Amino acid sequence: MDNSRITQIRSFNRAVTRRIGALEESYLSRGRPLGEARLLFEIGPEGAALGALRSKLGLDSGYLSRILRSLEAQGLVSVDKLDGDARSRYATLTDKGRVEHAAYDALSDELANSILEPLSETGRDRLVAAMADVERLLGAASITLDEEPADSAEARQCLARYFDELAQRFEEGFDQGKGNTTTEDEFIPPRGTFVIARLDGIPVGCAALRMMDATTAEIKRMWVSPSARGLGVASRMLRRLEAIARDFGAETVCLDTNRALKEAQSLYRREGYTEIERFNDNPYADHWFSKRL
Amino acid sequence: MDNSRITQIRSFNRAVTRRIGALEESYLSRGRPLGEARLLFEIGPEGAALGALRSKLGLDSGYLSRILRSLEAQGLVSVDKLDGDARSRYATLTDKGRVEHAAYDALSDELANSILEPLSETGRDRLVAAMADVERLLGAASITLDEEPADSAEARQCLARYFDELAQRFEEGFDQGKGNTTTEDEFIPPRGTFVIARLDGIPVGCAALRMMDATTAEIKRMWVSPSARGLGVASRMLRRLEAIARDFGAETVCLDTNRALKEAQSLYRREGYTEIERFNDNPYADHWFSKRL
DNA sequence: CGTATTACCTGACTAAAGTCAGGTAATGGA
DNA sequence: TCCATTACCTGACTTTAGTCAGGTAATACG
């Protein structure tokens, strides 16, 4: 463990908890229990499916039902059948509910403003920038990596977005039939593996590994969603795959890349890969790298 | 209001609330209500006076009493008379209580560590630095300024620390009798005023204003505690005093300062003061400034 | 010295938050 | 077609959190 950093994080938690408490208190000022206020807020002007509300707020189905009945009784919300599945229901704000929602919204704005207000112009800039950093990095910290079959629905989804991006970025375009010298079933243990990176459960990146021979692994399909770039996801996936390759008995990892993917090349160099001679006939590859494990 | 900044603050709040929620859940994992856990934690290895606990956690006296009885029943805490005032009582952890406390402490550490762990070394550095910034600036945002009598206990305390600092920093030392051309009763409305800056209720700075004649105000006793420097407290106090001076009918504000107080001089210049000729015979003054309101 | 105040305790209460075991209607799949 | 599953609802319940009105002993103050 890393003591001074942990101390800083804990002290940050305490400082921020107080602010959050202030927000909750201001929410209570409208004379409604926090649970109802939160639900009203979460339904929002667009409305929301009950299932979505339940999972987002982590509510028991019976409990949600009861709070909704109370909001309905107050004339703030109406719950109707959703066309499609007649079991599902959809909550919408009434006009009165929209007014209440706007009031809660204003309270949040006010609190945020009360934080900015006493600060100087430069203080405000620094605070907002630091908050953005914290948020970004907390997000990065909650990205998880999971090994899973390369033919799962989400894996396919990642791969589709990966190939889309190749088609956009390669000067020469990208034809999947021509470029794919490898089939997805090579990414299944023990011949290889497939890793998906997720942020709050939704996929934001993937990477694949296959054993070329007993002591050589190849990394392919390395992709990070634009929304998650700059958070170190790629290097985490790379290291994870290297560790797995080691377990598979690999002594060397190699990979190829297109000249258009500059940031990938600098990532590989940063992670200790060195450029080598062409080792395959991938028509889209311009650079070949390898690293001894 | 400042829209994009407010949006950033609100989004930060949401992101951080989730983390805090995770901490509270981990606290619940020890099978004890959050209220008891918090109290146990707050008592700490050193123990704590009941009054201090009540004010720190914002608990009703009856409620506190009940939670303490429950912790006593679990054998975690003992409450004894404090020597001195036989009405006050003091809570201490038993050996078993200390073990529990350490367990909660470990949970907090674990959560902090789980945030750091997935990040790269530079990511960790950036996160911790950004958290420190946010914490600092949130602190700055909660500094309040109050006008109050210059002879209150806390005002005297500020002034004592101010004079101490002068004695330390002036090359020629500082003798209060010689330096004080002004008495504290000149800082009472409508002849003048006295402002105290507080962070969480404790004084961290002061500044005084007195009217020299009907249209000229003088600023004196400008001091910021070392712990609160760099947060813009001085310029906030300065602006507040200028606004009050305006209300008093002042058209010009002037002040003097010693050559050793470099940061004060640059503050005055930054705030629009220009250096003028000597206007008093303060033996410790080396520079004189004024500003038209 | 008597009285007001303080520091804490007790008992009686309420509201909010959440859990659990069924129950109903719609839907999907064999 | 039948049966398991899903999406939601209802009623009965518990725990947690918190408030309020007294009450007691110690202390401060005029």
TrEMBL record, chains A, B:
Domain HTH marR-type per the UniProt entry, residue ranges: 1-136
Keywords: Acyltransferase, Transferase
SUPFAM superfamilies: Acyl-CoA N-acyltransferases (Nat) (SSF55729), Winged helix' DNA-binding domain (SSF46785)
GO molecular function, one term: DNA-binding transcription factor activity
Superkingdom in the source lineage: Bacteria
Residue stretches making up the N-acetyltransferase domain: 142-293
The protein, known as: MarR family transcriptional regulator
